[in-house]
Backbone:
């Protein structure tokens, strides 16, 4: 069982679609993260929210739009994606002081 | 700039000991973490070193030398289930972001 829950597990979308990825945690961690991972590559940081405020945006294209409605939820809104955006999108929550992040199982996105 | 280097592949036999090295370059360094990821799974946390020295957790140990910008993960009594990718990651910056190395694919042979 994972303490960070991501939905959907799989998503296929066209380049003109709008969709959202959702992440939920109830561990009380105040830092939440979105990472993107391609096959055989390391997770790449996209966004960091600290106390529900966006603290890092790693120059991610505007077709990815994060949202943190409250301390338990993190969304990633997707619009006009490209096929090269196909990847595993990982949400994580953790204590920024300990280097310990709890990852969800990820949402595997395919853009056609 | 920021970088982490670790070997791309390591192979060992069951019962053996293996060490995965990691060298890093960054400013605002807080500590070094290690994560394990099985194919199709999520990264799972193994250890974190903020200070120099060795941290031991069961069969796994992690070492950090801040002066050498170097760390390693030591896996003892290898089991088949230890076959996975292992990532070192440093915690850095004012927002304490975690940046991952390229990963080491460990294969444990019977």
Residues:
């Amino acid at each position: 069982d994972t303490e960070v829950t991501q939905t959907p597990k799989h998503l296929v979308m066209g380049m003109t679609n709008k969709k959202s990825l959702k992440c939920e945690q109830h561990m009380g961690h105040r830092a939440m993260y979105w990472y993107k991972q391609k096959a055989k590559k390391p997770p790449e940081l996209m966004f960091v929210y600290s106390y529900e405020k966006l603290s890092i945006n790693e120059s991610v294209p505007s077709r990815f739009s994060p949202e943190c409605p409250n301390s338990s939820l993190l969304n990633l809104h997707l619009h006009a994606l490209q096929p090269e955006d196909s990847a595993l999108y990982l949400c994580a929550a953790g204590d920024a002081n300990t280097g310990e992040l709890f990852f969800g199982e990820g949402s595997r996105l395919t853009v056609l | 700039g920021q970088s982490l280097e670790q070997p791309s592949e390591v192979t060992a036999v069951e019962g053996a000991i293996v060490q995965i090295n990691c060298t890093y370059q960054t400013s605002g360094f807080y500590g070094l973490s290690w994560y394990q990821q099985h194919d199709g799974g999520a990264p799972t946390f193994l250890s974190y070193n903020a200070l120099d020295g060795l941290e031991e957790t069961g069969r796994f140990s992690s070492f950090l030398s801040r002066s050498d910008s170097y760390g390693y993960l030591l896996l003892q009594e290898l089991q088949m289930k230890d076959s996975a990718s292992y990532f070192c990651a440093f915690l850095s910056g004012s927002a304490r972001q975690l940046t991952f190395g390229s990963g080491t694919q460990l294969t444990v042979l019977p």
Notes: The radius of gyration of chain A is 13 Å. The first strand of chain A starts at residue 4 and ends at 7.
